[in-house]
Amino acid sequence: xxxxxxxxxxxxxxxxxxxxxxxxxxxxxxxxxxxxxxxxxxxxxxxxxxxxxxxxxxxxxxxxxxxxxxxxxxxxxxxxxxxxxxxxxxxxxxxxxxxxxxxxxxxxxxxxxxxxxxxxxxxxxxxxxxxxxxxxxxxxxxxxxxxxxxxxxxxxxxxxxxxxxxxxxxxxxxxxxxxxxxxxxxxxxxxxxxxxxxxxxxxxxxxxxxxxxxxxxxxxxxxxxxxxxxxxxxxxxxx
Length: 239
Fold this sequence. Notes:
By secondary structure, the protein is an alpha+beta fold. The protein folds into 2 domains: 3-115, no CATH class; 145-236, SH3 type barrels (Roll), CATH 2.30.30. Helices cover 38% and strands 21% of the residues. The chain has 8 helices and 8 strands; from the N terminus they run ααααααααββββββββ. Strands 1, 2, 3, 4, 5, 6, 7 and 8 form an 8-stranded mixed sheet that branches. A hairpin with a 4-residue loop joins strand 1 (150-158) and strand 2. Helix 2 (33-43) crosses helix 7 (95-110), helix 4 packs across helix 7 and helix 5 packs across helix 7. The termini are far apart.
């Protein structure tokens, strides 16, 4: 993880508070959810800021900072440690879903609310069904898209990086959130890959989405970028 992001959200090592926090090593990986929350209580720097946001905003804002730290530094992508195995036993295997549940649980703990893990898992399963349904719809949309069709691609604001970045498919959050914007473009190529559709899109207008970029490319008129229908948010522009 980038050092500047780590410093912004967490203090590690010598910055631990007193008492039980002294037991954690610098590269500590929690053993289970409760251990993770205890650890986060020790190392999370801006707990009050995180706590005082709404649950939805707190988790969304932390996705690229605290969430990324959880996924990468706790080795969730490897899928081998006891923390990952706990979630796998509950039917949650995708690291981004695991980090979201951990962040929700931490936010609830800070606000003295019931973590309600079983309720979160039930909601996750409902969302999973919604996601599967949405992916089927997106597959059909990709099938019907034609070369030259106008589309609006959703970008989400990342406050840490001070810009807008291609938004991953959020099947629970509305696309018209204040932290989102739309880059207008047109489809210039389409290829079916493993049941999904990969598009090449040429930007036609990004004035409503200033300072937006993808993979280091600024989203300016004439720029092209690759877009996977499975993972990202897109709307067909009204005709």
